[in-house]
Predict the structure.
Amino acid sequence: MPLALLALAVGAFGIGTTEFVMMGLLPDVADDLHVSIPTAGHLVSAYALGVVIGAPLLAALTARMSRRQVLIGLMALFVVGNALSALAPGYDSLLAARFVSGLPHGAFFGVGAVVATGMVPPERKARSVSLMFLGLTVANIAGVPVATLMGQHLGWRATFLAVSAIGVAAIASLALLVPRSPAPAGGHAPHAPAAGLRGELAALRSVPVWLALLTTVAGFGALFAAYSYVTPMLTDAAGYAESSVTLLLALFGVGATAGNLLGGRLADHSLRGTLFGGLTSLAVVLVLFPVLMRAEWSAALAVALLGMAAFLTGSPLQLMVMEKASTAPSLASSANQAAFNLANAGGAWVGGLTLAAGFAVTSPALAGAALAVLGLAVAAVAYAVDRRGTATAQPGRVVAGHVPQTSEALRH
């Protein structure tokens, strides 16, 4: 695999750290800025809003730029946002800085996925995406716990300065490792301009692209319906002490890392099969969650399995969106990152509805299972649309929203 994937993983590690560390620092930030915990929680929402707005907007605005330059520019914006967070004099300025920090998130992963797949042969595309996402999952194992401890002992501002330093390291890595020269045979030049704004927007008129995005929202909404409430499940249902939760959440990161790597490898053999298998596994794990949460050992296993099952689908979902928008993948790929964040908010909302209705503390997992089944249904509809498009397409001709079946596409 090209060393340039390491540079993308470094950027993903920094982004993953800054996205999730605020959750661990909320009490410290709230105390320092003299606001309530719920008010400080808006800092998490501000970041997510930045992702949702920035992903399609920045991808569209940079559509004709060199993708290498875009990645470096996005990481520079990331550094600025986190430096502003560290220097924020008050709550309002920190809220704005967190929004700025979120802006490059989706576009970086979106454009980075296009660059990653362009540097490898077709049979390794999903694996290349999973290696970039590896930085995100490792951030949950190492980056977030270390950054949280740093914030607790040195102050939360030190955490964001450290994250800014990671961003600087990512910029240096991108400049050094992402080549200016064309990619190997079978790939595309990582620095090549995209199809332009009109071409990128045209890709979003494709029904298969929207079905892939909806699969992402439902599939990862299933994860966040349960994961958003995993702490009370572990303490109230499984009987763990609150001090043990951080270590258990690291188990989620371990499972997510394993699932991400496995999903990338399997998707290179069967993209569609890996997606269906991952969503089915996620639904099964979530259905079993209430039972697994009855004992400490099985609850720990459930957390790891949740991460593995959910991230089995990460690379397949990203690659599927890109393949359905194959002529102009950057905007669609970035929009998929916005879909991940919509899944975060929507899944947490759906899971919260079950608790508000008075059901058991493990009930959000069952709501998540329903969302996973919905994701499977949408994926099945997308498969049927693809089959119909294949049957009606004339040889050598591209039908709107469909790429004619080549030997590579048949593996899907």
